[in-house]
Amino acid sequence: MEFLYKFPESLQIGSGEAIDVAVKAFSRNNRETLGLIKSAIIASINSINSLLEAIPWPVMILVVAYLGWRVSKKLYVGPMYAAMLFFVGMCGLWDNMLETISMVIVAVFLSVIMGFPLGIIVAMSKRTSTIVRPILDLMQTMPAFVYLVPAVILFSPGKTPALIATTIYAVVPMVRMTNLGIVHVDKEMVEAASSFGSTKMQLLAKVQIPQALPSIMAGINQTIMMAMSMVVTCALIGANGLGMEILLATNRTEMGKALMPGIAIVIIAIILDRLTQGMVKKEAVSE
Amino acid sequence: MINEDYIAEARNVVKIYGKNKAEATKMMTEGLDKDEVYRKTGAAVALWDVSFKVRRKEIFVIIGLSGSGKSTIIRCFNQLLKPTSGTILFEGQNVEKLKGNELLNLRRDKVSMVFQNFGLLTHRSVIDNVAYGLEVRGIPKSERFEKAQDFIKMVGLEGWEDKPIATLSGGMKQRVGIARALVNSPDMLLMDEPFSALDPLVRREMQFELLSIQRKLEKTIIFITHDINEAFKLGDRVAIMHNGRIIQSGTPEEMSTNPADDYVRNFIEGADMSMVLRVKHVMFRPQCIVRENVSPANAVMEMRENQVSSAYAVGDDMKFMGVVTLDDAIRARQEKLPLFSVLTKNIPVTGEEVLLKDIIQKAADARFPIAVVGERGKLKGIVSRASVLSSLA
Predict the structure, then answer these.
(1) How close are the terminal C-alpha atoms of chain B, in Å?
(2) Considering only Cβ atoms within 10 Å of each terminal Cβ, which end of chain B, N or C, has fewer?
């Protein structure tokens, strides 16, 4: 009866060695293309980073404070955001913060330009939907670390695999929320627009996308949040920025040094979340 | 004169949802009930063998309860839904055969639609909604706004052009819906329960306005409703749908005087018949008619024979002269007066084609049944007070 309690070894397959081999072979055979992708990604991250670095820190703080006030319509929010950002600077983490943010920006940009059209296609075609939905579920439930390994094999440690992994992770809510927004547009409204002789593109551009905008904005907000959390995890594969500071401090068991960048991440996350959520609400109201 | 100029027609239209369409069709042809067909095949029969013709410039009302298929059939006319079989003709053309641009043109120029819950684009202003049909045709902004402005004025929403939809009341929203449907100058309007979401007062006002717009623009309208009063008020002709079939169609009068079956009868029972019935439907011949030049004794005898206490007096050619009561006739006999001198002359009269609702007041005030007279004062019959007032119930 023993075989009932111990899964027989003869039925076990290898633990994915074949996949390892395939990924490595792919990496070898496509070195040039991968190299091109890598340099494009690095270039875009760096240019965003230098753009952010070109802004004097007091100007940045003032702009964020102003936006905070505009979005929330509350007087105390502006100074609060300013103080929070000022604190990040005081911790000596300003440059790390810019590095992290520039990666988030590129990852979110990629997620939006891929996720938005994909979300629309999924909403329009039932067949695509049946294929894409399980893939999205898979992408969202798969532990994020699993993406890191193939990304590293393909692009070698650094910002590029970090960005790819982040984008894969962050694109999911963009697709989902775009899809959701379009599917949930009032049926009669779509009928009405069709009944007046709209083409499919007119229907999309004049009715479905504007109606789905609050949902799409919520998708962007979630994408930013997910990118933010993933970028930090990506320190494990050599992405510089706040995550790297935490990783180093953790390895050296320096509590204080780990805490400061941790707080900085929380601050950035809060500010980004509130600013984008505020925009979502503004959209919802104008509906 | 009957207008035989048909603009649109549904011919044996069938719509079945779900799989096993062929099997369901076979079962329905064999005469099975649609519920039974659903149980056996899982296919839902929404429309079965629906045929009717719509005359140019008439309001054709389709009435039925929810699930009767009325919203399904109306959507076949602009191909928001495609029939499983059968044909929809518009201006003699099979709309199902229209390809791509032809279908767009039908929807843009010929047929437009008004929806139960308005279907307005909530992210746009009033004028941007009204102009939508022109916008998809690629008409420049200034031109389409100018045109939209005219129709906004027509539905009485001047001054609301730039307001967001959310600020409008239900009645105003449907005014926008109607203006939007009219702006393309379509030949036919499809109205899917346009007033059902409105409260009764606003509904009545909108019905009135629809009639006056119809009189001005002379559009053909297919109008869906579940309210029999609305159907009879607006419809030149009415079709009753039940379980995906049309059970009866005809003018409101035909339908109420001659219902096809109990279902129709029950439906019509809910109607305010005074809106539909005319005097000719409830009048009857008086039991006792006397010529005014006979002797009073003769009149008394006539009344005794018919066991009535009054008689309708006519002159030559059945010209209505008045009513003589038994008491007056007896008095005239005793006093040797001619019959015509004792006639009660102030009897209310009416015509055959008058709607009952228009003589309610007369009937309520009258001491005698109302006399119905035709050309040259000819007595056609009488309408009792009871039959007028009972039609109100």
Answers:
(1) 33
(2) N
